[in-house]
Design goal:
Pfam families: HIT. This is HIT family protein. The longest helix is centred in the middle third of the chain and has 21 residues. By secondary structure, this protein is α+β, with helices and mostly antiparallel strands. The chain has three helices and five strands, in the order αβββαββα. Helix content is 28%, strand content 18%. The mean pLDDT is 93. It has a single domain, classed as HIT family, subunit A (2-Layer Sandwich). The two termini are 29 Å apart.
Length: 141
């Protein structure tokens, strides 16, 4: 895509701190470095978000996640965990509209990164849960 910053990084038009590349993906350090080693893994094929993936692309991209995760673990033995995030669409905090997976090493509870799922005090009834499951199940192809 013409004005996509990640496409420009993949094509070496913009410099990056590359950590891995093959024919399907490109992985590089996120300039924000939420934590040391914060890495982005992007498909070389321009797709806006997960909704543009087909099964083949998903298989290729997500198969590379453990490879990069294991490299982070070896590079930073002090790492105590890893968050893997994939934000899709603006409401879900996607800010660059070329699909990407964040691999965010975790070093302690005080490493300035957290995820909160909010208040779960209002739970759905069994009937509501079944209706939700059925609505999704009908659409899985």
């Amino acid at each position: 895509m013409e004005n996509c910053i990640f496409c420009k990084i993949i094509n070496q038009e913009i410099p990056s701190y590359k950590v891995y590349e093959d024919d399907k993906v490109y992985a590089f350090l996120d300039l924000s470095q939420v934590t040391k080693g914060h890495t982005l893994l992007v498909p070389k094929q321009h797709v806006a978000d997960i909704f543009d993936y087909d099964e083949s692309l998903a298989s290729e991209v997500f198969a590379r996640v453990p490879k990069v995760a294991k490299a982070l673990e070896k590079a930073f033995p002090e790492m105590e965990g890893l968050n893997i995030l994939n934000n899709n669409k603006e409401l879900a905090y996607q800010s660059v509209f070329h699909s990407h997976v964040h691999l965010i090493p975790r070093y302690s509870k005080k490493d300035d990164f957290s995820i909160h799922f909010g208040d779960h005090s209002e739970k759905q009834s069994k009937e509501e849960m079944q209706a939700i499951a059925e609505a999704i199940k009908e659409q899985v192809k």
